[in-house]
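Crash report, auto-generated. Payload:
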Amino acid sequence: MTTVLEGLLRLGVWLLAAPLLPGLINKVKAWMAGRRGPPVLQLYYDLAKLWRKGVVVSTLASPGFVAGPAVAWVAVLGAALLLPLGPLDALLGFPGDVLLLIYLLALARFATAWAALETGSAFEGMGAAREVSFAVLAEAAVITAILTLSWQSRSLSLQEMLAPSAGPGMVLLAVGLFTVLLAENCRVPFDDPNTHLELTMIHEVMVLDHSGPLLAAVLHGAAMKLLLFAALLVQAVLPLGDSRPRRRRWP
Amino acid sequence: MALIAGVLLVTAAVGLVESWLARCAFRRVPLLLTTAFLLCVFALLTAWNGGAT
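Recovered output after restart:
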């Protein structure tokens, strides 16, 4: 019973805390610009509003247009549940789970690009092409960072890999992972979540035709991905995590 | 608590970096990702040599 409650608690943390992060970022940006900015809880209001609305589907759109955001949301949630949260173990952790994490994030990207291509609009196709072009570089950096952590911990389990260790390598990894965080979460300078200019849109153009609960799934999935990368970065390189025992499995 | 503080720190850093970079004109953004990849490669090499353990 306690295990079930703990599982539900961790699930609740991922689902409920994630929309707070974009609000905090917007608040910091507004503060830097000398503006008041939207409320920190703005994304919660937006999600509640979108959930009550209907979905507009183009006559050209295939079922992939509806399935894409759902698959992407489930994939990001699955990836999040693989990640330990501080002293709490991962809900679905197992040896080798880091490989599943990489593939789930790739699946989420594929599903989003797939849904964008299914609209039958060249504009969304352009955004999908840009997204996967950036992914080639971003995923290479993520995989190299994972390799670094894996080599240090001599393990392929996130539970053992995410034990911070100080050193020059960690500084390099922190800067690299932070840049990847910006790219993977469509932040400036790689993308601008608030833009409506054709030339600067990547992620936004892919989800331009989505509405109602589908758009809510996309926005909530993006917030969860941001929380996932932030938690991964903090636990991997910043000396803030707990001191889990690091077992060396490789020679 | 440390994890929450760290995540909030990273979130604030994203906001600060976005505010700062929004004033700059980046024409070769993919180079930033290439740099990130290279930094991770150097981190791997450092770990390989035992520099960060």
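Post-recovery validation: Residues 245-251 of chain A have pLDDT under 50 and may be disordered.
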